[in-house]
Structure formats: C-alpha cells, structure tokens
Design brief:
Strand order of the largest sheet: 8-9-10-11-12-13-14-15
Radius of gyration: 28 Å
Structural class: alpha/beta
Number of strands: 15
CATH architecture of the largest domain: Alpha-Beta Barrel
Number of helices: 19
Number of domains: 2
Strand content: 5-15%
Shape: elongated
Length: 517
C-alpha cells in the first residue's frame, strides 16, 4: 500500500506538485516491480494529495493493475482538509482509480453512513476498512474495543449497502478478519441502486464574489488608485503596556502616514499579540493598521479562527508571512507549527475573502482582507524567491512589502523579474542607527548594504551623528526608488519613531502618477 507523504504539498506546503508526484511514482515503481496484484492508496486526508497519488500510480501501473484509493474522514464525514463527502467523492470518481472508499479514521457506523452518501456521487466499486471502533487511551496505549462480532455484523451491512471490498484497519486482529470473512462468505455484494448526479457545481458558483479591493480598506482604495503609500513599522511591546506604541502611532497619524505595520512575533520573540496591537492602534490612534500574520504559532484551525476574529475586530490589511523559526528567538525550544507556509496562508485568506473555508466549503459570509506578502530582493537564491513570489500572486496576493532595501540594483533586478505578475510593491526602508547596526544587517540578517553606506556609517563621530547619517541615507533611498514602487515601509529602529518620520518627509507628493499595478 501507499500512504500520504506526511508533509503538505503546495500551495499549503513547501513540496511542489512535481516533487510529490515523483515520491509517489518511486513507491509505485518499487511495488509494481515486486509483482503486486493491486495497489491500495490509503489513509489520505488531503483530497489534492490523493488525486496526485492516484495519477502517479496509474502512470506507473498502466491500465491493467487495479488501484484502490481510500481516504480518511472524521465523525462528520469530512476529510481533515475540510472536503465534504460530495467534494472528495467527485474527485475520486474522476480519478483513474478502479475502486474508491474509506479506511481508518472512524468506527464502522460512521463509515457506513459516509459510504452511503458517497454512493450518491459515484458508481465506482467501493471499499470500506474501518477501525475496530474508537480508540480508548489506557495506561498510555490506544486500545480498540470493537469486538470481532461487532465488526463482522458491519461487514454484512457494508455488503448489503453495495460495498465490494471490506476489511479492517487500526485495532483489527486476525480474529476480526476471520469472523468478518465467515460472516460474508455466503453473501454476494450487490450494487445498491443509486441516482448519480452528473453535474458538479463549479467552485465559483459556491464562492462569493470578492469585495472590490478599494472597498475593503483605506489602504486598498489607495493601492487601487495608484497612490503612493507610506507605512511605519511599530513592534508590539514585550509586556502589557502599549502606551508608548500607541503614542508613536498617533505621531504617525498626525504626520500623514497611511498605515501602521505591526509584526507578529518578529525574530521569534514573545510579545503582545499583534492582532490586539492592531486593534488598539485603530481604536486609540485613529490610523489603519496592517497585521503581520505568521504560520509559526498556529495550526490551520487556529489560522482560520484567528483570521475570522481579526475581520470581526475591523482589521482589514494583512501581510502573510511564514515566520521566523523558534530557534532564532529567546525560546529556542518552543515548537514551530508551520502547518502551512506563506503561500498556503495566502490561499486560506483568499478563500475566506470568497466565503469559503480551508476545504473550499461555503461559510455563508466572507472576509474583506487586503492580502499582502513579503519578498526579499536580496535573496541569495533569487530564482527560488521569484518562484515563491509568483505562487503567492497566483494564490491571491495583492501587494508586497520587501525586506529593507539598500542596494538599488538588487531592487531593480527584482522588479524586472516580477514584471509578468506585478502587484503593488512597497519597498522596505530601514534608517541605520550605527555602524554596528549596519554590520548586523549584513552579517546576521543577510541584507546587502553597499560599501558606500557602510563607510558613511563608520565615519560618523557620535551616536547622534550616526543616526542623522542613517536618516540621510534612508531619505536618499526613498527619493531614488520612489519612481519604481508604489510605497515605502519605514522602520522605526529601536522604537525611534522620529527617525521614521524624518525619512517620510522625503516622500513628497503622493498623488497617483500611474495606474495601479
């Protein structure tokens, strides 16, 4: 048999479709070469993954070898990715599998109920291989209490319902299988008459039309109009007192800054919730916030839950990021979740904007997020950075904020490479505070800083003059890159909001000079 990879496939994970298919082909080739009579693909919880696995297996096995494709469901008949019975059955029905069905996951009762629903959407032969009931935890062990007699009764019921292959999964023993075989030996499976609905509703018929970006937020309206925008980044506090940060946001609002950008646990640090910080800023400082939302600390259930909550709180602007690994922070032994990366997160948010949950199922209402992402023009592997950026755009990204830019040439190259899938670009600008700060950028954050700027910071005679020089460099960068991009994100290093606002003075006129990208 062949099971799932145990890692998510793009766009929800880092494994590409081509890589995943190669892994499945490799397994199928070994089994076919060994002379198996059939291939069973089992215990899949992601409908996209089993579709890919069946395709790979069929390519290897050819048209003659029987392929059985089985998924696993919860107590409500849904797969872990949220796919409903109708959704996953139609996918399996259209796949090149000969037999489709269920295994593992639940006891025989729920499996029988789900199989009977599946028969409404497919006439392919079906298989059922349930666990021996639900497991019970006893002294650290999972015990399955479904008796051989109980499973044998359900084996008969499966066949009466029209199932063609019956068996067992977790908790079943040789005695379970023996009694099931005895029970069904005298029976012949029959096909239960079913009415098959051929037409599959397209996902667009179930999705809601996205709210136009200009109606989702003030930032969305400015981006749509081609207006040059300015963000200032404000980190949440390490404690519970956010008064200094709120006052900094008020300073920015008075200075005409468009949004406050709030990082989510930057460099794997433990800080006040970025979502709460955004809400406080919008409530108390009167300026729109942009919420960084990272994948490190939440599984996909938590991601969807918190995004819905953010919408209810009035947060409309996001930057979807993967997040720094915990080992970079002050608690290196903390667990990083990373159920998805930033590409998968963009897809989740884009679904929510269409009123669909992670599995593509209608929710009855929709979110109205403006979806931003991050990018690094100075990435060591620019080809991979561009590939991931294109994937973010194809999954719904609507603007991008770059890492700090010091090397104009790298930014120009990046912009040229993304031209076929260009979205509004907000360039990151970091006012250097000292020569040591510049060294940190180069050696620890791997942000390229031209030697000219390094030398200017090195020559600064005092801390105050170094900060002045850092502002001067940042203002020079803003003036040079303004014609290339649609905005800047100004960092306030070490909480020095005055430095960010001094740099902002170099922006000048922000009127639209071109159509929005």
């Amino acid at each position: 048999s062949i099971g799932p990879l145990g890692a998510r496939i793009e766009p929800l994970g880092a494994i590409t479709y081509e890589e995943a298919k190669a892994y499945f082909r490799e397994q199928a080739e070994a089994l076919v070469e060994a002379g198996v009579d059939l291939l069973i693909l089992e215990t899949f919880s992601d409908v996209s993954e089993i579709r890919l696995a069946v395709e790979a297996a069929r390519e290897v096995a050819g048209p003659e070898l029987v392929i059985v494709a089985q998924v696993t469901v919860d107590d409500f008949g849904r797969m872990a990715d949220g796919s409903t019975v109708e959704t996953f059955t139609r996918v399996l029905d259209e796949s090149p599998a000969d037999v489709i069905g269920l295994n593992c996951s639940v006891g025989p009762k729920v499996m029988l109920d789900t199989i009977q629903q599946m028969m409404q959407y497919s006439r392919k032969p079906m298989s059922a291989m349930p666990n021996a009931g639900h497991p019970v935890r006893v002294e650290g062990r999972n015990l399955y209490l479904g008796s051989p007699e109980y499973l044998s009764q359900y084996a008969r019921r499966f066949l009466w319902a029209g199932v063609r292959i019956v068996g067992g999964c977790c908790g079943t023993t040789p005695e379970h299988i023996r009694q099931m075989a005895n029970e069904v030996r005298s029976l012949r499976p029959r096909l239960k008459p079913t009415e098959v609905v051929v037409e599959e509703p397209a996902i667009k018929e179930r999705a809601l039309e996205k709210i136009p970006i200009e109606k989702r937020s003030s930032l969305g309206a400015k981006l749509a109009a081609g207006r040059f925008v300015a963000f200032v980044e404000i980190l949440p506090p390490r404690g519970v007192d956010a008064s200094r940060e709120i006052e900094g946001a008020r300073m920015c609002a008075r200075a005409g800054i468009d949004c406050i950008n709030v990082p989510d646990g930057p460099r794997a640090s433990a800080r006040m919730s970025a979502q709460v910080m955004c809400w406080l800023i919008q409530q108390q400082a009167g300026i729109e916030a942009v919420l960084h939302f990272c994948c490190r600390d939440r599984n996909i259930l938590g991601i969807q839950s918190e995004l819905l909550g953010a919408h209810v709180l009035g947060i409309r602007n996001l930057i979807c990021i993967t997040g720094d690994p915990p080992r970079m922070g002050t608690y290196p032994y903390a667990t990083g979740v990373f159920d998805v990366d930033s590409i998968g997160l963009v897809r989740i948010v884009n679904n929510l904007n269409q009123g669909l949950d992670l599995g593509g199922n209608p929710m009855g209402s929709q979110t109205a997020f403006v979806i931003g992402v991050g990018a690094n023009p100075g990435a060591l592997n620019l080809d991979e950075e561009i590939r991931r950026f294109e994937a973010k755009v194809s999954n719904g990204a609507e603007y991008v904020v770059t890492q700090p830019v010091f090397d104009i040439g790298l930014l120009e190259t990046f912009l040229r490479r993304i031209e076929p899938f260009r979205i509004p670009v907000i360039a990151g600008i970091w006012p250097l505070t000292s020569y040591r700060n510049a060294e940190f950028m180069v050696n620890e954050l791997r942000v390229p800083v031209p030697q000219e700027f390094m030398e200017r910071m090195r020559r600064a005679e005092s801390g105050e003059k170094a900060r002045q020089e850092g502002v001067a460099i940042a203002r020079q960068l803003v003036e040079r890159i303004k014609p290339m991009v649609q905005g800047v994100q100004l960092s306030a290093p070490f909480g020095r909001y005055d430095m960010a606002l001094q740099v902002a003075e170099a922006i000048g006129d922000r009127s639209p000079t071109r159509s929005a990208s």
